[in-house]
Design a protein that fits this description.
binds pyridoxal-5'-phosphate; 385 residues; 21 strands; five-stranded mixed sheet; alpha/beta; elongated; nine-stranded parallel sheet; 12 helices
Amino acid sequence: MIEEKLLRDTYLEVNLDSLEYNIKEIKKLIGSDVEISAVVKSNAYGFGAVGIASTLVGCGVKYLAVANLLEAVELKNQNSNYPVFIMGHTPDSMMQTVVNKNITATVFSFNQAKILSDLSKTKNKITPLHIKYDTGFNRLGFKHSKESMREIEKIFELENIEVEGIFSHLALTSYNDDLEQFEKLLKLKTFLNKKGLSPKYYHICDSISGMDYENFRLDMIRPGAAIYGLKSFKNKKIKLKSIGTFKSKISSIKKISPGEGVSYDYTWKASKDTTIATVPFGYGDGYPRNMFKKGHVTISGIKCPIIGVLCMDQCIVDVSSIENPKVGQDVIIWSNGENNTISVQELSELAKTNKNEIVSRTTRRVPRVYIKDNKVYNILNYLLN
Ligand SMILES: *Cc1c(COP(=O)(O)O)cnc(C)c1O
C-alpha cells in the first residue's frame, strides 16, 4: 500500500521517464563530444538526489555534481560507484573523506591541491580534481591573472592527483560579458597547452549557457535546472519536460456566508455564499507563503484560488466552481502548467523568486514519489528513513 509509505496526502511526484527524456534531448543537442555533469545539489533541486541518481547515471551522465561534501557523501553512501563531483569548497580538515570515498573535489589554491596530494599518497591512490578558475563572477576560484596561471601550473606537478578538469561559472549578465569570461578561461587553456598540460575537461556552462551558447560548451556542461525541465534558456531547438507535480488531497469542505473571514487576520472575507476547501500543505512544505490572494491550486482541471493567509501546514481555497467537491479529492498544487495547473515558472513569478528556489525549498516532510512507466517505482520518505 502506497499510503503506508506516505502517511500524508501531500507529496511531490517525480517522473523519471521525463528526467530520462530531458537528458536524452540535451545529449542530442550538445552531441557526443560534450559530457554532462548533472547538477543534483540541494537534494536535486528538491526532487530528491538519491531518488534520481541511478536514473541519471543510467543515462550516461559523466558526473553527479553537488555543492558540498555532505551532499557528495549522501550519494556515495547510496552507491559508492556513483561518479560524484563537488563544485564548491571543501574545508581542508575534511579532505580525507574526499580521498577515502573517491570523490572528485574542486580546489582553487595550491595548498588545497597539496593536501589532496599528500592524503592520496598515504592511501596509494590517485585522486582526480577540478580546478576552479574565477573569470569574473567573483565567488570561488583562482582569480584570472598570470600568477594564478603559474600557481595552477604548479598543481600539475603534484603527485597522486590528476587535474582532470578546469572550470569556471558565468554571471549570465549579457552575451558580451559572458564572452569576456569565456575568453579568460580560454587564455588559461592556451597558457597550459603551451606547457603541454591538457586536462580532460574544460567547462563553464550551466543550463542557460549550455543550451544557448553552442560555442561555449567545451568538453562538458553542468546543467541543473534544465534536466528538471525548468526552462530559462531561449533555444527553441530543444523541448524539455517538467518532471515534477506537487500533489495533495482535500481534507475538509465548508460552506461560508457573506462577511465570514478565513484564516489568520481574516484578510479574506466572503462576499457571497462560498464553498471553501482546506488542503494540507503550507509554507512548512516549502510552498511560498506570499501566494495567498494570488495563487491557485487545480482541482478536477479547474483553478481554485488560494484565499486567506497561507498557514504553515494548510491552505484554504475557494472551491465554489467545483461541482460536488469531496474530502479526499485530488489537488494539484503545481505541475507543468497544462490543464489549468500552475507551472513552476508562473508560481515563481507570482512569488517574486526564481524557479530553482520554488522547487529546492520543498521540505523533508514532503515524500517524493518516483514514477516510471506510469507506475510508482520508488518512494523517498525522509521522516521514515
Ligand atoms: C548550480 C550550479 C550549476 C547549475 O545551474 P543551473 O542554472 O541550474 O543549470 C552549474 N554550475 C555551478 C558551479 C553551480 O553552482
